[in-house]
């Protein structure tokens, strides 16, 4: 359809009656979200596992799912019907109105090919379900030719391209239905979804319970999104207020809230679009639908209009892109949601066999988000609020289908509105076309899980005969490690040995390599700790199985036996045992367990904790003496107010890392996401071997780095899967480095002088001197021991060795300005 | 005795005389004292109570100001009864978690957070000592936990505010109550400020920051951007100290009722609403007068909403922000709060004149909101504690008299008794 027709179609919406005025403030709260897109349809039960894992992000007052690229057999239709017909899913809260709805809103407009009533569990099966979920009926329909023509004629839009016209007809028909049957206080029935090959189910409850209640465990789909809602307003929550919200061929879930709900509503009203369910999420779905379907904008433009590129990032864009981005921003900035948000959008386009999961982050990146790709025979990609949700889905998938790997190959965070990847990703699943799964960023660049190169280690001396028995094999592995592959040998050989070992072993004992990786990653299945219920205040260890521990003994705790938070959590368990005298801990099978290492208090210098699995938020927050080693990536709010001690992370760290940090030594192998080290004071010494996304060390106040104050080192490197070390294209992609800072220093490995003044918002470059090198060298040496990133390698650039002052740049706070006349006067009198 | 301490002694003596003489004497108008909200009478009534420990007699209007709105337009109806026996003024802070102590404080108020840096060490210790003697509490504010307060740890709330200054596991584990400060009613959305001049070497040491540099607490917690983050935030403190109660201090936006319910579901024991009249001179005038909702409107809004949600009796509702007199306390409770938090009134007892120069130069000329080593000698800990303690006694006596006259035997019976209030003047 051409642009003129599109505008003409859009303009005819003025005939729609407006919806009732919104309440004073829209109902909204926090949430947990997950979405996946797979090369082949996957069953709902795997999403269920993910949602169960993230249950603590909701409060049971709203949950929902959407699925696209569906299995026709589930509905009892053939593939063609599924793909050509609108799947009109209507939720009846009052079953008695069904006849009326069909008579007034379906039969006059639609030819029905098939009706499918979604089966449910009997009420009462799922605990704590306060409100009966809507009885959901799926109608597979096409617009009646005469009805469509009559409408087009009346609206003055005849002669337009068929499908776009029919889609708009569906949209308006549903609008009338919702207005009449759900608007005001009626709440009798509403349209759950009305796209093609796209289904939405939602209710007042947890997201996972939606799958259970509607028995969607075995429904297969290419794209899934799921949502737990945590609303705070109103005692009675209604299913229409749960996510996902729909446009037409898309469904959207959202974590966050907008400050400008009323402005966006006004923006939509000017285009004669009226939301009905009074939540900010609904308006964002409507804006997406308006831009993508009605205006026909490509996804890059839609993403730009929702999460505009601003400030320094905008200046980094190519000029021609700046032109049309600026035009988009001028036209649609009022439709751009302002505030913390993270959208997952399931989009269906059966005409070309493409099903997309579109993930968009707000410009300030204020909500938790993590993206992941698990490559393999059947690739799958995810976006989620927390990594353990993704892990749970992958565990579930791989346990029944060996083509899926039990852990992701590539995990990353992103910054909304950035000039590098836009902070938005499109996970496309294709039926019939190759590649069956493709992940691209906002600008269309493909994101891949970096694959280990051909290691060529056949003849390597460390890859000798491998025992087939698991424990013998592990013993061999440990022995090899103990022999210590010399530090001088490239890191790649150490990794190659492990890979080779696992490959051979897997072949011998006929197990999947990824299972073995998981097994090696979590060193034991044993649980040595009794469940907390057996403990009493008199017998804190439950049955007295442990006497006061010998300090050299190690306590292995299986986190799966404990809740993720609360007084019986694994974090509290560690505190109990530390108080009883244990010093060494290994925590295995973490599934997002939060607050580990919290509560140990001061005087904990002798405590050492090793952690395996998906580490939860707030790890090592308040750490004051102890050592914590994370064998993998960690999540958000790490090392908040950390005071002393040591934290080592063999992977990435999430958002708001080291907020209010006061001291201690931190070593991170990978990247930090947004807002690291904000409000740092005292004397923290932090080495980040990768980079971070934005707002590094805002309001940093950590004294003078050269006189006992704090600092951060950004090495801007990436250790690849084959062990080689490469420079990142940009040492620091964001802006606002050191904004409002008054103390401390940031050392950035930037031999090419890529970092520009525009990225410093309150910081200044200052010469890197010998004293600086004396200061950071010991930290870099420890870093080398931990991660095998030799100091010599850090001084290498363009294949030659340089002086430290040619490699590192130092940023210190700009001299702070006197803030009022008195202060200025005082400064003079001093 | 050093010259400095001799000078301090002399000034202290004169200031103390002034605090005694001003309320009693007839010196005409006071051009530099107070404003319409805190009238000269209210300030001098505070001085008098702090001197005598009894309800004011020298000051005529010691209950309302001249703002022509809010509390100043509300009065209690005439009570005709004469209830005998003991009047219970105690306030239970934990209403939802049987595992923990009920934590009953002796008075229906406690001290609000004023940081080391915004006020002097001596003032903080004096407040803590007074809190201890009345079995109530005071709060660290956001500037660390000065060692002088450690002896009173059972009566000191550790505040966790957005700058996280001075917050460590040690100070979290020491406290009976942990207070999250999300916003201040006097300047919601503006975070916290301590201008460079007041950030002396000692203050900076406590906060581990750079001396003589202005300090900012960001407006939001960078780790909290929605309600499930808020719940996680509370879970965090409960992991570090499972035995402490959690208080959530918020300002009063138009959807404050939703905020209160969200805090309840996130696990808070106390919701503390900070209205727009509070704040010392450091808060910008434009913010104090224009942003948050007046506390008189916020209290009933939240009280009613919590009742509607069926959770009113599981959470303690505390109000603050410009509580100036015994009747302000009683009015807040009659409007639906369980108790209040006092800040400025404590400082009035120590001689504050509301000159609003708290943030200028080295701070207060009366030695209150200063950390200047010489100026802060104007307040001695014991003297300050006695003055605040006297003030509390006088406030308690007035509340007891009010309750007796309305036939009530405890302060909790007053909660939500809007029927006892009369709105005076103005059109509704």
Name some characteristics of this structure:
heterodimer; A: 830 residues; alpha/beta; Glutamine Phosphoribosylpyrophosphate, subunit 1, domain 1; 3 domains; 11-stranded mixed β-sheet; 7-stranded antiparallel β-sheet; 22 helices; 34 strands; 28% helix; globular; B: 428 residues; TIM Barrel; 8-stranded parallel β-sheet; two-stranded antiparallel ribbon; 14 strands
Topology:
The complex is a heterodimer of chains A (830) and B (428).
Chain A: H1 3-11, E1 29-43, H2 44-53, E2 63-70, H3 72-75, H4 79-84, E3 86-92, H5 98-106, E4 110-117, E5 135-143, H6 145-155, H7 162-181, E6 189-193, E7 198-203, H8 207-213, E8 220-231, E9 245-246, E10 250-256, H9 261-269, H10 280-294, H11 299-306, H12 311-316, H13 319-332, E11 341-349, E12 354-361, E13 370-374, E14 380-384, H14 387-400, E15 410-412, E16 424-430, E17 437-441, H15 470-483, H16 491-509, H17 513-521, E18 554-558, H18 570-579, E19 584-593, E20 608-615, E21 624-630, E22 644-649, E23 665-668, E24 672-674, E25 685-688, E26 692-694, E27 711-714, E28 717-719, E29 725-727, E30 745-749, E31 763-766, H19 770-787, H20 791-794, E32 796-797, E33 800-801, H21 804-807, E34 808-813, H22 821-829
Parallel strand pairs in A: 18-19, 19-20, 20-21, 21-22, 22-23, 23-25, 24-26, 25-27, 27-30
Antiparallel strand pairs in A: 1-8, 1-14, 2-7, 2-8, 3-5, 3-6, 4-5, 9-10, 10-11, 11-12, 12-16, 13-14, 13-15, 16-17, 28-29, 30-34, 31-34, 32-33
Helix pairs in contact in A: 2-8, 2-14, 9-10, 10-11, 11-13
Chain B: H1 3-24, H2 40-52, E1 74-76, E2 91-92, E3 104-105, E4 109-111, H3 121-133, E5 138-139, E6 156-161, H4 169-174, E7 177-181, E8 192-194, H5 201-207, E9 215-217, H6 227-240, E10 245-250, H7 256-266, E11 270-274, H8 285-290, H9 295-308, E12 316-320, H10 326-335, E13 339-342, H11 344-349, H12 381-405, E14 421-423
Parallel strand pairs in B: 4-13, 5-6, 6-7, 7-10, 10-11, 11-12, 12-13
Antiparallel strand pairs in B: 1-14, 2-3, 8-9
Helix pairs in contact in B: 1-2, 2-12, 3-12, 6-7, 7-9, 10-12
């Amino acid at each position: 359809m051409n642009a003129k027709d599109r505008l003409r179609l859009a303009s005819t919406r003025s005939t729609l009656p407006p919806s009732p005025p919104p309440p004073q403030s829209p109902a909204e709260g926090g949430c947990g979200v997950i979405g996946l897109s797979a090369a082949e349809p996957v069953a709902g039960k795997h999403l269920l596992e993910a949602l169960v894992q993230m249950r603590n992000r909701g409060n049971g007052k709203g949950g929902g799912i959407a699925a696209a690229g569906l299995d026709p057999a589930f509905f009892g239709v053939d593939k063609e019907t599924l793909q050509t017909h609108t799947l009109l899913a209507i939720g009846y809260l009052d079953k008695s109105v069904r006849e009326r709805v069909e008579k007034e809103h379906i039969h006059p407009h639609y030819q029905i090919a098939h009706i499918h009533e979604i089966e449910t569990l009997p009420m009462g099966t799922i605990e704590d379900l306060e409100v009966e979920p809507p009885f959901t009926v799926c109608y597979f329909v096409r617009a009646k030719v005469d009805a469509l023509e009559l409408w087009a004629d009346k609206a003055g839009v005849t002669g337009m391209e068929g499908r776009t016209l029919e889609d708009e007809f569906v949209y308006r028909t549903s609008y009338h239905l919702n207005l009449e049957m759900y608007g005001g206080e009626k709440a009798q029935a509403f349209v759950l979804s009305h796209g093609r090959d796209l289904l939405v189910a939602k209710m007042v409850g947890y997201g996972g319970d939606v799958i259970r209640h509607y028995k969607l465990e075995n429904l297969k789909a290419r794209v899934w999104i799921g949502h737990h809602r945590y609303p705070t307003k109103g005692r009675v929550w209604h299913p229409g207020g749960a996510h996902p919200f729909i446009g037409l061929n898309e469904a959207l879930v959202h974590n966050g809230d907008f400050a400008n709900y009323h402005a966006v509503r006004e923006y939509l009203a000017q285009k004669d679009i009226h939301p009905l369910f009074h939540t900010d999420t609904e308006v964002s779905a409507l804006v997406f639908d308006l831009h993508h379907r009605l205006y026909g904008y490509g996804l890059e433009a839609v993403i730009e209009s929702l999460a505009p590129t601003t400030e320094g990032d905008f200046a980094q864009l190519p000029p021609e892109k700046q032109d049309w981005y600026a035009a988009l921003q001028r036209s649609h900035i009022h439709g751009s949601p302002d505030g913390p948000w993270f959208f997952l959008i399931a989009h269906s386009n059966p005409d070309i066999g493409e099903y997309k999961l579109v993930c968009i982050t707000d410009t300030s990146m204020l909500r938790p988000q993590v993206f992941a790709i698990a490559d393999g025979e059947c690739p799958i990609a995810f976006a989620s609020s927390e990594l353990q949700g993704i892990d749970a889905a992958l565990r579930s998938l791989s346990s029944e289908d060996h083509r899926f790997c039990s852990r992701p190959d590539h995990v990353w965070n992103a910054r909304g509105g950035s000039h590098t990847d836009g902070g938005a990703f499109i996970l496309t699943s294709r039926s019939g076309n190759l590649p069956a799964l493709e992940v691209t960023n906002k600008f269309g660049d493909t994101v891949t899980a970096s694959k280990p190169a051909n290691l060529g280690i056949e003849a390597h001396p460390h890859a000798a005969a491998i025992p087939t028995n698991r424990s013998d094999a592990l013993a061999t592995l440990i022995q090899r490690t103990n022999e210590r592959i010399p530090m001088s040998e490239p890191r790649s050989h150490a990794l190659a040995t492990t890979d080779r070992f696992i490959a051979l072993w897997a072949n011998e004992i006929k197990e999947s390599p990824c299972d073995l990786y998981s097994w090696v990653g979590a060193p034991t299945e044993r649980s040595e700790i009794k469940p907390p219920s057996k403990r009493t205040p008199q017998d804190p260890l439950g049955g007295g199985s442990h006497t006061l521990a010998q300090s050299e003994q190690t306590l292995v705790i299986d986190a799966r036996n404990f809740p993720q938070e609360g007084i019986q959590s694994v974090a509290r368990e560690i505190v109990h045992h530390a108080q009883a005298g244990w010093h060494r801990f290994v925590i295995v099978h973490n599934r997002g367990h939060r607050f580990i290492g919290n509560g140990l208090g001061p005087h904990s210098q002798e405590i050492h904790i090793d952690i395996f699995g998906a580490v939860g938020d707030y790890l090592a927050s308040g750490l004051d003496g102890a050592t914590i080693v994370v064998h993998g990536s960690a999540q958000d709010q790490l090392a908040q107010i950390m005071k002393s001690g040591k934290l080592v992370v063999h992977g990435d760290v999430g958002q708001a890392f080291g907020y209010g940090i006061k001291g201690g030594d931190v070593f991170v192998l990978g990247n930090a996401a947004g807002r690291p080290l904000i409000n740092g004071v005292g004397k923290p010494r932090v080495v980040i071997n990768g980079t971070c996304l934005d707002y590094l060390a805002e309001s940093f106040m950590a004294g003078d780095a050269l006189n006992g104050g704090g600092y951060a080192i950004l090495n801007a490197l990436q250790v690849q899967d084959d062990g080689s070390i490469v420079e990142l294209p940009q040492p620091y992609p964001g802006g606002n480095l050191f904004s409002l800072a008054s103390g401390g220093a940031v050392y950035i490995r930037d031999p090419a002088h890529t970092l520009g003044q525009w990225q410093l918002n309150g910081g200044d470059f200052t010469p890197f001197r010998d004293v600086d090198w004396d200061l950071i060298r010991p930290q870099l040496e420890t870093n080398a021991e931990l991660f095998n990133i030799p100091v010599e390698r850090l001084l290498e650039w363009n294949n030659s060795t340089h002086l430290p002052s040619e490699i590192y740049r130092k940023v210190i706070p700009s001299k702070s300005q006197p803030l009022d006349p008195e202060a200025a006067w005082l400064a003079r009198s001093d | 005795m050093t010259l400095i301490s001799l000078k301090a002694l002399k000034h202290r003596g004169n200031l103390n005389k002034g605090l005694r003489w001003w309320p009693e004497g007839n010196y005409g108008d006071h051009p530099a004292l107070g404003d319409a909200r805190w009238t000269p009478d209210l300030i001098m009534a505070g001085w008098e109570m702090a001197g005598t420990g009894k309800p004011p007699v020298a000051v005529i209007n010691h209950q309302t100001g001249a703002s022509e709105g809010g509390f100043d337009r509300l009065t209690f109806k005439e009570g005709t009864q004469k209830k005998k026996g003991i009047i219970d003024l105690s306030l239970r802070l934990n209403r939802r978690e049987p595992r923990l102590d009920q934590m009953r404080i002796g008075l229906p108020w406690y001290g609000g957070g004023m940081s080391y840096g915004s006020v002097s060490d001596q003032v903080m210790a004096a407040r803590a000592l007074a809190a201890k003697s009345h079995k109530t509490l005071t709060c660290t504010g956001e500037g660390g936990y000065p060692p002088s307060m450690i002896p009173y740890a059972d009566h000191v709330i550790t505040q966790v505010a957005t700058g996280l200054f001075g917050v460590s596991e040690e100070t979290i584990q020491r406290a009976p109550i942990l207070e999250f400060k999300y916003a201040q009613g006097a300047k919601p959305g503006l975070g916290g400020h301590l201008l460079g001049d007041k950030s002396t070497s000692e203050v900076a040491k406590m906060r581990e920051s750079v001396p003589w540099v202005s300090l900012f607490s960001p407006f939001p917690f960078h780790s909290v951007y929605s309600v499930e983050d808020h719940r996680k935030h509370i879970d965090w403190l409960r992991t570090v100290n499972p035995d402490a109660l959690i208080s959530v201090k918020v300002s009063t936006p138009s959807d404050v009722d939703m905020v209160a319910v969200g805090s309840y579901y996130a696990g808070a024991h106390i919701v503390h609403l900070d209205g727009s009249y509070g704040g010392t001179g450091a808060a910008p005038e434009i913010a104090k007068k224009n942003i948050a909702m007046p506390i008189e409107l916020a209290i009933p809004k939240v009280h009613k909403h919590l009742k509607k949600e069926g959770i009113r009796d599981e959470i303690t509702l505390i109000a603050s922000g410009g509580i100036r007199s015994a009747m302000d306390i009683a009015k807040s409770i009659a409007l639906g709060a369980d108790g209040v938090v006092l800040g400025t009134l404590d400082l009035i007892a120590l001689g504050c004149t509301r000159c609003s120069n708290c943030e200028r130069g080295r701070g207060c000329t009366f030695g209150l909101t200063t950390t200047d080593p010489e100026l802060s000698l104007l307040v001695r800990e014991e003297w300050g504690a006695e003055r605040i303690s006297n003030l509390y006694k006088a406030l308690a006596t007035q509340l007891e008299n009010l309750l007796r006259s309305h036939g009530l035997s405890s302060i909790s019976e007053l909660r939500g008794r809007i029927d006892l209030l009369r709105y005076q003047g103005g059109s509704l």
